[in-house]
Amino acid sequence: MEILITTLSVLGLLATAILIGTRGRPQRLFSQGAESLGRIWDNRGPLFWVMACVLLALGFLFYFYASPATRIGAAQPIPFSHQLHAGVKAIDCRFCHSYVARSIHPGLPPVEKCLYCHKYIIANHPEILKEHNYFNTDTPTPWVKVFYVPEHVMFNHQRHIRKEIACESCHGEVKQTERLKGKRFKMGFCIQCHREKKANLDCWLACHN
Ligand code: HEC
Ligand code: HEC
Ligand code: HEC
Ligand code: HEC
Question: Do residues 101 and 158 touch, judged by C-beta distance below 8 A?
Answer without folding.
Answer: yes
